[in-house]
Amino acid sequence: MAVVRWIVEEIGLSVGALKGAERSIFEICGGEQWGRLARGYLLVKPAENEARFIVAVFEDMVGRGAVVVPFAPIVAGIRESLFDVAPEEDQKSFPFPPMEVQEKGPLRAAGKRP
After folding, report:
1. Which residue from 10, 35, 49, 93 puts its CA 20 to 30 A from 72's CA?
2. Nearest partner of 53 among 63, 74, 73, 38, judged by Cα
3. Considering Cα of 10, then 27, then 83, then 35, what sign does the dihedral take?
4. Are residues 64 and 48 in contact, defined by beta-carbon separation less than 8 angstroms?
5. Cα-flanking dihedrals φ and ψ of residue 45, to 5°?
6. For residues 54-80, average pLDDT
7. 33-63 pLDDT per residue, tens
8. pLDDT at 41
9. How far lies 16's CA from each of 10, 36, 98, in Å?
10. Residues 21, 25, 46, 44: what is their CA dihedral angle, to the nearest 10 degrees?
11. What angle do CA 61, 28, 74 make, to 5 degrees?
12. In angstroms, rounded to a whole number, what is the distance separating the alpha carbons of residues 73 and 42?
């Protein structure tokens, strides 16, 4: 979804312009590891209802027209939002604020008695 949002917000294409390529877009984004995606591009050809992952952009790939989406800023934005953890003070308002857990006695396997 982040890729589609980027295409709509950054490039100004409508979601309808991606019709026919949407399945490929989601398969590419869900099927590749983030590290690999970050080093490549999404090549979308709306007129041909085609989308594919590429590692480099060459003029002959464009054909009748294409949208080239760099994955690096999208992956970086997702990573940043995932690792942006609220400070502990913000969590005190939760019904069960964070607590320090102290270990007591020997560790026991679940369901086993000493």
Report:
1. 49
2. 38
3. negative
4. yes
5. -115, 90
6. 87
7. 888 999 999 999 888 888 999 999 888 887 7
8. 94
9. 16, 28, 45
10. -150
11. 90
12. 12
Contact status, residue 22 vs residue 44, Cβ threshold 8 Å: no
Alpha-carbon span 25 to 1, nearest angstrom: 9
The set of residues, in sequence order, having a beta carbon less than 8 Å from that of 73 and lying 6+ positions away, is 6
In Å, what is the CA distance from 104 to each residue of 81, 98, 108, 109, 114?
Answer: 36, 19, 11, 14, 14
Closest to 42 measured CA to CA, from 59, 60, 29: 29
pTM for the model: 0.65
Token pair in block for residue 105: 């006695």
Q: Amino acid identity of 94?
A: F
- How big is the chain, counted in residues? 114
* Sheet order of strands, 50-54 included: 50-54, 41-45, 67-70
Encoded tokens for 101:
């857990």
